[in-house]
Amino acid sequence: MSVFNNLPSPPAVAKKPVSDTRHGIARTDDYAWLRADNWQQMFKDTSILDPEIRAYLDAENTYMEAAMSDTKELQKVLFAEMKGRIKEDDSSIPMKDGPFAYGSAFVTGGEQPRYFRIPRDGDPKNESLRDLLLDGDKEAAGKDYFRLSGIDHTTDHAFGIWGYDDKGSEYYTLRIRDLKTKQDLDDVLENTAGGGVWAPDGQSFFYTLQDENHRPSKVFHHIVGRPQSEDRLVYEEKDPGFFMGVGGSLLDDFIFIDIHDHETSEYRLLSTKNLTAEPVLVAEREEGVEYSMTEGGDVFYILTNADDAKDFKIVEAPVSAPGKANWKEVVPHEPGRLILNHMAFARHLVWLERREGLPVIMIRDRTSGEEHSIAFAEEAYSLGLQGAAEYETDVIRFSYSSMTTPSQLFDYNMATRERTLLKTQEVPSGHKPEDYVTRRVFAEAHDGEMVPVTLLYRKDTKLDGSAPCLLYGYGAYGIAIPAGFNTNCLSLADRGFVYAIAHIRGGKDKGFSWYEDGKMEKKVNTFRDFIAAADHLVKENFTSFDRIIAEGGSAGGMLMGAVANMAPEKFAGIIAAVPFVDVLNTMLDDTLPLTPPEWPEWGNPIESEEEYRWIAAYSPYDNVEKKAYPPIIALSGLTDPRVTYWEPTKWIAKLRDSAPDAGPFLLKTNMAAGHGGKSGRFQRLEEIAFEYAYAIKVAGKM
After folding, report:
1. Cα(141)–Cα(138) distance, rounded to whole angstroms?
2. Which intervals hold domain Peptidase S9A N-terminal (predicted)?
3. CA 346 to CA 58: how far, in whole Å?
4. In the chain, what percentage of residues exceed pLDDT 70?
5. Cα 155 from chain centroid (whole Å)
6. What CA–CA distance (Å, rounded) separates 243 from 262?
7. Does the pLDDT at position 215 exceed 90?
8. Alpha carbons 468 and 699: distance in angstroms, whole number
9. What is the pLDDT of residue 639?
10. What DSSP designation does 297 have?
């Protein structure tokens, strides 16, 4: 029996067929017109959106509100619960850098962070010592959307670059703040990727500019006090398939220009001793070869998968000649041990690795070569390696949590191996870890692979198949979903839900091969793994098919669309957040922001008929049929440059047309936000409360 009763008729949407033929294969798209012709300009000024498109999106929002009207009070309750678990006046533990320690804090009721500094050895708990550098709430006043990109200070601590996006389109404006007077200089830099890297003299910095197709394709050098139009172009990446970023070193000796797609990378270096020189190439890009660099005094440490080091190794090279011919192995490749990132300090080399799905921090004495690890004993947990802001240090910082254990922040002395607990995440409304169970189980996939699934549920939950389950998945770009503490999902667990994360192929949860087996021609493994996770949870009586609500966002939204087509009977409902569901059309359009850089992940259907057919076989929008789909809700943002608003909009329209007796199918478009949803910390909770209210409603637990 449907939990959606007495719904009004859904909005009518016109069909305006557009035909397309590629590789001799013809397709017709009835809803292509929902993509605004002026989308690039509209991301910067939403008032110019085609009135017909706006009217339709508004009508869909009205229909969605009607369908969810009986959850209003539940949303308020959920929001209050989630907010009650957040320490409103929370503060970070400042990180030491020179004469100061820098941190951030929130105030009670505040949506945005405040950035501050204190004297280096000052008491972090003494708020009177805080020198407020940037008040995010003040800067966000009067804006529907506002997201900060942080603040980065000069070596002499006199100035800071800070950036903001006030539309959700991820075009950031940069300002320069005098950290003594707290006044911004006249410099205003538009259309940046957010943030910059100061030169050591504090008189100039480097930043990336977003082009008209929203790609960070140029690095510029800005001199303080001059207009942006006079900024020197340092490097331009001509290949639209590559992203570009700019970073600095702890020693202030180099500016790193990082050029990469999802499987190939290239670095260019600019010595800070000569800021007007041309950047020097380190190792020319080779398809499928990745590398990243960190400083090490007279050497660079380079993390790479070169020479068939699938799970990565660390090499070193002299600063004077860092080319590939001079790479010397330091940490060898070990199959099944995936090295995720690395850092170097004066006396130690540090890296984060993952074995059997669990993270470990490794530390090596650079003189003796002696190694030791930082690890924990829980069945499933998450580690975060923050490192340090200074090169001459023996102390690094890391975080630890599990699904039941609140986040803990530690300082760790690499020489003495002393671990100092700095902070434990407070849950003001209370949390008893012993009331909950976290487990890691393994689901057998169609080809015999074992898919890890992390579970959280209350100890008193009956595991007889009657419990509802929210099953979350992502599975793309090699991103692993950590088994960390999440106060929000406790609201589901407290209502008898099993909260589950499926660590499916497409991520690197079980090493690099786990990623390779979930991309390109093997992409369908991602979807089948997720279905296998659902099958296993039912088989082991954690839940039942008519009680599983699936959730995923962005590339995980593609997953939602695919499993809806492949196994609609195995889900009671589906939540697809900013879902990448119109895969074929998007990959055929090389003017879209992410299309060329995405080809190594999904395939290039423009050039290859074979790759066209791979994508066409699973692209959710292209495979919608007349089926008994479960209720589905799609969430999108009007100014989202990553998954454009028209993808979920078209998908919902096609679902409704193809399967009029199924669903219902709902669309919620945030008309003042982009890919990440609302920007404030409590505004974001409102969105999560909405999603959870949908899951509870669909599960029949209202």
Report:
1. 5
2. 11-424
3. 57
4. 99
5. 29
6. 9
7. no
8. 6
9. 87
10. S
d(CA 53, CA 57): 6
543 in Cβ contact with 599 (< 8 Å): no
* CB-neighbour burial class of residue 83 (10 A; exposed 0-12, middle 13-18, buried 19+): middle
How far is it, in rounded angstroms, from Cα 281 to Cα 575? 45
Tell me how far apart the alpha carbons of residues 190 and 204 are, in angstroms, rounded to a whole number: 16
Question: By the 8 A CB rule, do 308 and 297 touch?
Answer: no
Average pLDDT over residues 622-628: 97
Q: Crossing angle for the helix pair 524-539 and 555-566, nearest 10 degrees? A: 70
* SS3 assignment, position 656: helix
Owner of token pair 């590789």: 23
544-585 pLDDT, tens per residue?
A: 999 999 999 999 999 999 999 999 999 999 999 999 999 999
Compute and round to an integer the Cα radius of gyration of the chain: 25
Look at residues 622, 171, 604, 611 and name the one whose alpha carbon lies nearest to residue 595: 604
Q: Average pLDDT for residues 127-147, to the nearest whole number?
A: 94
Q: Is 448 left (phi over 0), alpha (psi -120 to 50) or beta?
A: left
Cα separations in angstroms, 190 against 26, 161, 194, 673: 42, 13, 10, 19
Give me the helices (H) in 50-203, please.
51-67, 72-84, 136-140
Rounded distance between C-alpha atoms, residue 172 and residue 192, angstroms: 5
N-to-C CA span, the chain: 14
Separation CA 637–CA 677 (nearest Å): 7
Tell me which residue has tokens 């671990």.
Answer: 419
Catalytic (active-site) positions: 554, 640, 675
Q: How far apart are CA 415 and CA 412, in angstroms?
A: 9
Provide the angle, in degrees to the nearest 10, between the axes of the packed helices 51-67 and 646-658: 60
Which strands form 280-281's sheet, in the order they lie side by side? Answer: 243-248, 254-260, 265-271, 280-281
Q: In the chain, what's the furthest Cα-to-Cα distance?
A: 73
Helix and strand tally (H, E) in the chain? 13, 38
Residue 132: CB atoms within 10 A of its CB come to 12
Instruction: Name the amino acid, one letter, at 134.
Output: L
Question: Which string of DSSP letters, residue by residue, matches 166-200?
Answer: SSSS--EEEEEEETTT--EEEEEEEEE-S--EE-T
pLDDT score recorded for residue 375: 77
Do 474 and 506 touch, CB atoms closer than 8 A?
yes
Pairing between β-strand 665-670 and β-strand 632-637 as defined by DSSP bridges: parallel
pLDDT tens column, 405-444 = 999 999 999 999 999 999 999 999 999 999 999 999 999 9
Residue with tokens 């172009």: 233
Please state, in angstroms and rounded to a whole number, the distance separating the CA atoms of residues 103 and 118: 8
Would you state the structure tokens that stand for residue 638, as one six-digit string?
């009007």
Cα angle: 344, vertex 424, 478; to 5 degrees = 50
User: What tokens were used for 104?
Assistant: 């951030």
Give the tens place of pLDDT for each residue, 174-194: 999 999 999 999 999 999 999
294 strand-pairing partners:
301
128, amino acid identity:
S
Confidence of residue 168 (pLDDT cuts 50, 70, 90): confident
User: Does residue 665 or residue 644 have the better pLDDT?
Assistant: 665
Other C-beta atoms closer than 10 Å to the C-beta of 158 total 12
